Amino acid sequence: MRNITAQATAAASQPSGADVAVEVRGVCKMYNDVEALRSIDLDFPVGKLTTLLGPSGCGKTTLLKIIAGLIPATSGEIRVNGKVVTGPGPERAFVFQDFALMPWATVMRNVAFGLELKGMGKDERQSIARKYIAEVGLTGFENKYPHELSGGMRQRVGLARAFAVNADVLLLDEPFSAVDEQNRRKFQEDLLRLVELEKKTFIFVTHSIEEAVYCSDRIVILSRRPGRIAQVIEPDIDHNESPDAIRRDQGYLDTVEEIWQGLKRYVD
Ligand SMILES: Nc1ncnc2c1ncn2[C@@H]1O[C@H](COP(=O)(O)OP(=O)(O)OP(=O)(O)O)[C@@H](O)[C@H]1O
Ligand SMILES: [Mg+2]
User: Fold this and answer.
1) What was the pLDDT predicted at 11?
2) Domain ABC transporter spans what residues (predicted)?
3) Is the CB–ligand 1 distance for residue 56 below 6 Å?
4) If one looks up domain 2-91+167-267 in CATH, what number appears?
5) By the 8 A CB rule, do 99 and 144 touch?
6) What distance in angstroms lies between residue 12's CA and the mean position of ligand 1's atoms?
């Protein structure tokens, strides 16, 4: 594990030598008189999974929404592949904390929706959607509506939709929070495989320290509101080991403990 810094600066949060897909520069966010984020400087490198970890209300979803172009920063700017973000774009896909599925549309239509927006023909988009529906274990549910699914299943539809659009940047807001532990671990393996296979930039939010350590190349701990970067940690987990061996590994356990202590320090 590499504990980069407790008082992370922009320089400290820049991994050296990596292609950078998303640059966050001096981002602050006010919601009327509520200061949600203060002076966030972060780079998100291509091919890496960065996790935002921090207490409820510290601005994690807010930061993802600003990167997605769904809401503006009050000051500062975001660049994606070198271009300043002024709104949403097809190179970024968002899996929302609350699923945000279209309730009037079937699983198939929901998963294929991003491809429909791109103007892709029906046969092609349905064939791509079917592949990702299968990948998240929902084959047979293509014609169901969101209200006919469990919370965990709806979350999997959200994941399949994000993967189907083949975006460069995946913004994942607690994508596994509504699934049971067994599926959660399966999805963690799926996610790691995607990170390994596809040269995408993953920005992930979870409340689980264990999940963060298990899945992340880098963990950014945010302080209690207004969210500021408190600490940046690179867990350095060897995924050639079996999942069970990793979870028993002393380095893994020490990192979990270190983050727990860090959260207590920066959050209280
Ligand atoms: N649309 C909004 N209008 C006003 N205040 C908001 C709005 N959205 C978020 N906030 C406030 O901004 C702060 C950050 O919210 P945000 O949803 O980004 O936190 P979070 O870190 O994602 O929390 P959680 O872990 O509970 O999902 C909170 O205090 C919240 O009440
Ligand atoms: Mg949130």
Assistant:
1) 40
2) 22-249
3) yes
4) 3.40.50.300
5) no
6) 26
Residue 27 host element (H or E): strand 20-31
Q: Is 60 in the pocket of ligand 1 (CB under 6 A)?
A: yes
The domain segmentation of the chain, as residue ranges, is: 2-91+167-267, 103-166
Inter-residue contact 29 to 225 (CB < 8 Å): no
Close Cβ partners of 235 (under 8 Å, ≥ 6 residues apart)? 1, 212, 213, 216, 217, 218, 219, 252, 255
Nearest CA to ligand 1 atom 1: 31
Quote the ligand 2 centre to 204 CA distance (angstroms).
11
How far is residue 231's CA from residue 69's CA, in Å, rounded to a whole number?
Answer: 25
CA of 142 to the centre of ligand 1 (A): 33
Arithmetic mean of pLDDT, 245-267? 90
Q: Is 59 in the pocket of ligand 1 (CB under 6 A)?
A: yes
Contact present, 138 and 107 (Cβ < 8 Å): yes
Q: Which residue has the higher pLDDT, 246 or 178?
A: 246
- State CA 172 to chain mean position distance: 3
**Interval between CA 127 and ligand 2 midpoint (Å):** 32
Q: What is the pLDDT of residues 116-153, one digit of tens each?
A: 888 899 999 999 999 999 988 899 999 999 999 998 89
Tens digits of residue pLDDT in 16-68? 456 889 999 999 999 999 999 999 999 999 999 999 999 999 999 999 999 99
Quote the radius of gyration of the chain (alpha carbons, Å). Answer: 18
CA nearest ligand 1 atom 5, residue: 31
